[in-house]
Amino acid sequence: MYLPQKPYMPIGTLEEAVLFPNKQKKAVETATLQQVLAECNLSHISDRLYEVATWSQQLSPGEQQRIALARVLLQKPDWVFLDESTSALDAENEKRFYHLLKTNLPHCSLVSIGHRLSLEGFHSHVLDFSKYRITAK
After folding, report:
1. Which one is predicted more confidently, 122 or 79?
2. Please, are residues 9 and 56 in contact by the beta-carbon 8 Å criterion?
3. pTM of the model as a whole
4. Which residue from 114, 102, 110, 107 is spatially nearest to 80, judged by alpha carbons?
5. Helix/strand/coil (H, E, C) string of the chain?
6. Domains parsed from the chain with CATH numbers
7. What pLDDT sits at residue 22?
Protein backbone atom coordinates (compact mmCIF):
# COMPACT_ATOMS: atom_id res chain seq x y z
CA MET A 1 0.00 0.00 0.00
CA TYR A 2 1.32 3.44 -0.90
CA LEU A 3 0.89 6.47 1.40
CA PRO A 4 1.85 9.76 -0.24
CA GLN A 5 2.52 13.05 1.51
CA LYS A 6 -0.92 14.27 0.43
CA PRO A 7 -3.36 11.35 0.61
CA TYR A 8 -6.31 11.29 -1.77
CA MET A 9 -9.55 12.33 -0.09
CA PRO A 10 -12.64 11.42 -2.13
CA ILE A 11 -15.67 13.67 -2.00
CA GLY A 12 -18.36 11.85 -0.06
CA THR A 13 -18.83 10.64 3.47
CA LEU A 14 -15.98 10.51 5.95
CA GLU A 15 -16.61 6.76 6.12
CA GLU A 16 -15.89 6.52 2.37
CA ALA A 17 -12.73 8.59 2.81
CA VAL A 18 -11.48 6.30 5.59
CA LEU A 19 -12.31 3.11 3.70
CA PHE A 20 -10.87 4.32 0.36
CA PRO A 21 -10.00 2.55 -1.97
CA ASN A 22 -12.31 -0.24 -0.75
CA LYS A 23 -14.24 -0.86 -3.97
CA GLN A 24 -16.09 -3.86 -2.55
CA LYS A 25 -17.71 -1.65 0.10
CA LYS A 26 -16.80 -4.26 2.66
CA ALA A 27 -18.90 -3.60 5.72
CA VAL A 28 -16.97 -2.20 8.65
CA GLU A 29 -18.93 -1.53 11.80
CA THR A 30 -19.24 2.06 12.95
CA ALA A 31 -17.72 1.15 16.32
CA THR A 32 -14.65 -0.28 14.58
CA LEU A 33 -14.22 2.86 12.46
CA GLN A 34 -14.58 5.07 15.53
CA GLN A 35 -12.05 2.97 17.44
CA VAL A 36 -9.48 3.20 14.63
CA LEU A 37 -10.04 6.95 14.31
CA ALA A 38 -9.50 7.31 18.07
CA GLU A 39 -6.27 5.30 17.83
CA CYS A 40 -5.13 7.69 15.09
CA ASN A 41 -5.88 10.69 17.32
CA LEU A 42 -8.97 11.59 15.28
CA SER A 43 -11.75 10.96 17.80
CA HIS A 44 -12.87 14.59 17.40
CA ILE A 45 -14.22 13.77 13.91
CA SER A 46 -15.53 10.25 14.54
CA ASP A 47 -19.10 11.51 14.95
CA ARG A 48 -18.96 12.84 11.35
CA LEU A 49 -18.59 9.44 9.64
CA TYR A 50 -21.79 9.81 7.61
CA GLU A 51 -21.38 13.49 6.78
CA VAL A 52 -20.80 14.28 3.10
CA ALA A 53 -18.04 16.82 2.48
CA THR A 54 -14.98 17.71 0.47
CA TRP A 55 -12.62 16.25 3.07
CA SER A 56 -9.47 17.58 1.41
CA GLN A 57 -10.79 21.06 2.30
CA GLN A 58 -12.31 20.16 5.67
CA LEU A 59 -9.32 18.38 7.21
CA SER A 60 -5.85 19.71 7.92
CA PRO A 61 -2.87 18.05 6.18
CA GLY A 62 -2.01 16.29 9.45
CA GLU A 63 -5.55 14.97 9.84
CA GLN A 64 -5.46 13.73 6.24
CA GLN A 65 -2.21 11.87 6.94
CA ARG A 66 -3.81 10.27 10.01
CA ILE A 67 -6.81 9.23 7.84
CA ALA A 68 -4.27 7.47 5.60
CA LEU A 69 -2.90 5.70 8.69
CA ALA A 70 -6.44 4.58 9.57
CA ARG A 71 -6.76 3.13 6.06
CA VAL A 72 -3.61 1.07 6.59
CA LEU A 73 -4.80 -0.19 9.98
CA LEU A 74 -8.13 -1.27 8.48
CA GLN A 75 -6.71 -2.85 5.31
CA LYS A 76 -3.75 -4.60 6.96
CA PRO A 77 -1.39 -4.79 3.96
CA ASP A 78 1.84 -6.80 3.90
CA TRP A 79 3.86 -3.84 2.62
CA VAL A 80 3.49 -0.09 3.19
CA PHE A 81 5.48 2.50 1.24
CA LEU A 82 5.43 5.82 3.09
CA ASP A 83 6.47 8.82 0.97
CA GLU A 84 6.78 11.79 3.34
CA SER A 85 3.65 10.35 5.00
CA THR A 86 4.28 12.05 8.35
CA SER A 87 5.52 15.43 7.07
CA ALA A 88 2.48 17.28 8.46
CA LEU A 89 2.62 15.58 11.87
CA ASP A 90 4.33 16.82 14.99
CA ALA A 91 6.91 14.57 16.66
CA GLU A 92 4.38 13.01 19.07
CA ASN A 93 1.88 12.12 16.34
CA GLU A 94 4.67 10.79 14.12
CA LYS A 95 5.84 8.54 16.96
CA ARG A 96 2.26 7.38 17.54
CA PHE A 97 1.85 6.76 13.77
CA TYR A 98 4.79 4.34 13.62
CA HIS A 99 3.94 2.76 16.97
CA LEU A 100 0.44 1.92 15.69
CA LEU A 101 1.85 0.43 12.50
CA LYS A 102 4.38 -1.74 14.34
CA THR A 103 1.93 -2.81 17.06
CA ASN A 104 -1.07 -3.56 14.85
CA LEU A 105 0.82 -4.89 11.83
CA PRO A 106 3.90 -6.66 13.25
CA HIS A 107 4.55 -8.65 10.05
CA CYS A 108 4.12 -5.68 7.72
CA SER A 109 7.23 -4.36 5.94
CA LEU A 110 7.57 -0.57 6.10
CA VAL A 111 9.58 1.46 3.60
CA SER A 112 9.75 5.17 4.44
CA ILE A 113 11.03 7.96 2.24
CA GLY A 114 11.60 11.28 3.94
CA HIS A 115 13.86 14.08 5.04
CA ARG A 116 13.29 13.90 8.79
CA LEU A 117 16.09 12.29 10.75
CA SER A 118 13.49 11.07 13.25
CA LEU A 119 12.38 8.46 10.69
CA GLU A 120 15.60 6.52 11.28
CA GLY A 121 14.46 5.61 14.79
CA PHE A 122 11.45 3.74 13.44
CA HIS A 123 13.37 1.41 11.12
CA SER A 124 15.95 -1.35 11.43
CA HIS A 125 17.73 -0.37 8.18
CA VAL A 126 18.53 3.03 6.69
CA LEU A 127 19.63 3.88 3.17
CA ASP A 128 20.95 7.45 3.03
CA PHE A 129 21.18 8.88 -0.49
CA SER A 130 22.34 12.32 0.65
CA LYS A 131 25.96 11.15 0.66
CA TYR A 132 25.84 10.07 -2.95
CA ARG A 133 25.78 12.09 -6.11
CA ILE A 134 24.53 10.90 -9.46
CA THR A 135 26.75 11.97 -12.31
CA ALA A 136 26.53 11.52 -16.06
CA LYS A 137 28.88 9.02 -17.66
Report:
1. 79
2. yes
3. 0.87
4. 110
5. CEECCCCCCCEEEHHHHHHCCCCCCCCCCHHHHHHHHHHCCCHHHHHHCCCEEEHHHHCCHHHHHHHHHHHHHHHCCCEEEEECCCCCCCHHHHHHHHHHHHHHCCCCEEEEECCCHHHHHHCCCCCCHHHCCCCCC
6. 2-131 (3.40.50.300)
7. 81
Question: Each residue of 53-82: pLDDT tens digit?
Answer: 999 999 999 999 999 999 999 999 999 999
Rounded distance, CA 94 to CA 72, Å?
Answer: 15
Give the pLDDT of residue 59: 98
Average pLDDT, stretch 95-113? 94
Q: Which amino acid is at 104?
A: N
**CA quadruple 68, 72, 73, 75: dihedral positive or negative?**
positive
- Alpha-carbon distance of 76 to 81, in angstroms, equals 13
Strands 2-3, 52-54: pairing kind: unpaired
